[in-house]
Amino acid sequence: MQKAPVNAIYAQSGGVTSVINASACGVIETARRYQDHIGVVYAGFNGILGVLREELIDTHMETEQTIAALRQTPGGAFGSSRYVLRSPQRDPAAYERLIQVFKAHNIGYFFYNGGNGSADTCEKIASISQSMGYPIQAIHIPKTIDNDIVGTDCCPGFGSVAKYVATATRETGHDIASMASSSTKVFILEVMGRNAGWIAAASALAQQCDSEPPHIILFPEVPFDPDRFVQSVQQAVKQYGYCSVVASEGVCDANGRFLSASDDVDAAGDHQLGGVAPKLSQFIVSRTGLKTHYAVADYLQRAARHMASATDVEQAYQVGVHAVEAAINGVNGAMVSIVRDSDSPYQWHCQTIGLEGIATLERKLPPHFISQDGMHITDDAKRYLQPLIMGEDFGSYDEQGLPAYAKLRKVMVSKSLPPWEPLD
Amino acid sequence: MQKAPVNAIYAQSGGVTSVINASACGVIETARRYQDHIGVVYAGFNGILGVLREELIDTHMETEQTIAALRQTPGGAFGSSRYVLRSPQRDPAAYERLIQVFKAHNIGYFFYNGGNGSADTCEKIASISQSMGYPIQAIHIPKTIDNDIVGTDCCPGFGSVAKYVATATRETGHDIASMASSSTKVFILEVMGRNAGWIAAASALAQQCDSEPPHIILFPEVPFDPDRFVQSVQQAVKQYGYCSVVASEGVCDANGRFLSASDDVDAAGDHQLGGVAPKLSQFIVSRTGLKTHYAVADYLQRAARHMASATDVEQAYQVGVHAVEAAINGVNGAMVSIVRDSDSPYQWHCQTIGLEGIATLERKLPPHFISQDGMHITDDAKRYLQPLIMGEDFGSYDEQGLPAYAKLRKVMVSKSLPPWEPLD
Lengths: 424, 424
Hints:
The structure is a homodimer. Chain A is α/β, with parallel strands linked by helices and about 425 residues long. Chain A has two domains: about 5-155 and about 310-360, Rossmann fold; about 160-305, Rossmann fold. Chain A is about 35% helix and about 20% strand. In chain A, the strands form four sheets. In chain A, strands 3-2-1-4-5-13-14 form a seven-stranded mixed beta sheet, with helices on both faces. The first copy, chain A, has a four-stranded parallel beta sheet with strand order 7-8-6-11, sandwiched between helices. A two-stranded antiparallel sheet of chain A has the order 9-10. In chain A, β1 (about 5-10), α1 (about 20-35) and β2 form a beta-alpha-beta unit. The longest helix of chain A is centred in the middle third of the chain and has 22 residues, at about 160-180. The interface between A and B is large, with 76 and 76 residues.
């Protein structure tokens, strides 16, 4: 006998992407198609913090049009959070609170949309059903621009930032090439990627022959060698007239120190990065005297919904769809993963895999994706990356000539529990 | 009696834009329609330097399709240059050389596509016809992302960078808004604009109400007041949960010193700018402790052809068309300017105006475009800016999912003169 419909919570976690809301769209639209199973989807206001605080957005108060528009809206429409739930042993009160909230709102499904950290949280919440006897099914929906989650061929969010970075590399390449005879000779584009060089690697898709940008890519996986870097810059300028460099924010020296860690340390104890490009720029000027320009893409790259990969948008949507269908089929403690069936024509499908071990691993560029000299990618890497940026999904524009985004009403569900604050 | 067809030279000057090649397209396509008047259009390889060196690209060796594709190709397809021709008094040899080149290739028209500096050069070349008796007609085609040329309602190149910056402000605003509850509270976007704040001002088009980004705009026209800036940042964070700042690279302190001039000085004696955002970011962190991120858009903004304003592309094309038609009608020593007939519906047309005085003036934001507090724009400014970003012109994409650009053959015209090098 089928159980009576229960409600679902959907929450966004960690750094947002330009397509995370496409996953939200996939979850909500699919849940609306399965009303025999799922009553209402509530969204955590600012992610898991909203769940703990009983701050829940009633997505059924949003029109079909608004939910559909989520598919083309960057950022985290319901608010995201970097808050990390401690283990049930260290913070049992948080789990008791979660169960109170789940009970108060008849929650049977928990969809957590995030990266490695949220996979860990999702696993802990999934375990409640066994250890604490509350029947919740928790499904992890992968999202990260960093492409560093194991267990999935790629991560929704990455394909679009990859397309953005490759496009920016091609565009700025045309700019520098046209000025180099009498002006800027070296251009450095700093991109995200603290520990994994996937985003920097994607810039190579802009290159159709050796003379085209990028000429040099700096990865977190390859220790920075100042002398070889300068040599390579000078060689490119000599050969092609200019040099285009793409640098991961996480480039390290031979001792594993970030080339440019600011003094600020964030909540998770990580150094806040950003500033590799200005440092490399100063370095090139001091060593070669070549005129240099740099750009720091920062949020521009991960918010660039206008430059989304149609493939990525569709994958982000489908992992949401698949999460709901898996939940209805009784899956718990799993992540939706993307399986590649073939490179060309590119074919893929979704499946679910167990969450064990996912959170503790971080997928870096494999050695055979990095060229011999450590400053470019191989054909294997290009074969992997190419399909992920295929297709354009520009979204719609408003009458003022700017991208039109979903405007949520964000009607909050009435609280029935006493106020509660999570540990700092 | 109509004179026999003569040839034309087209040259690009100064920092390139994402639509300068649309002007090239307008010139070449129009010249091809007037073969009774214009034989061949030669393009200076790397601008005026190529003209002086007799390095000329034969545009008639390019197919119609290639010339049409220039309309959607960023950068300067024939190469641009920051080389500034001295006056005929200081460097008479350069003018004698120009006349040699003009004679050698039967040149009757000179189209110079650039900013204030090139208007000056164009005027000098126009004067040759009188002072040195060589019958050349020189027409200036305006181009600059800075929108700082007087005598025209707007400058081709500006509308697209304006659209890019407004879009980036809206997109990154959604990103920060979704993370601010537990992460980054302040985001700073550094944009170009050494002396004029037009580009920074355009970011305000992203804002539909006060709570939306940008919350603070820093202009070169308004001396930076550290205390008021910090107060405003804190006020926005308190009121809206986060603060979005757009800063011109040319922001100055009360003594007129650039907040962030690097030590490098370029050929024109200007300090190379870039680096305001990291400085402001450090400043905010030290004064408020708020978590801050920044992006430096640099070439990303002026190369972003994928985000071009359809209005701007069309204007860039039409100034090229108009230049050729004016030349055929006997105009010399003039600039094509854009005249605004009405704001809404936006209507405009091209005309030519004399070059006298254009080069020496730089159009800054007028005081009535800057809000009372000096950190935003007025409704007058919005009325002016709004039409310039209207319409999307994405260009076409290749089979690899990236923007497709013109690939020129660049067949060089045979030289008939001895080698010659311009003064440094």
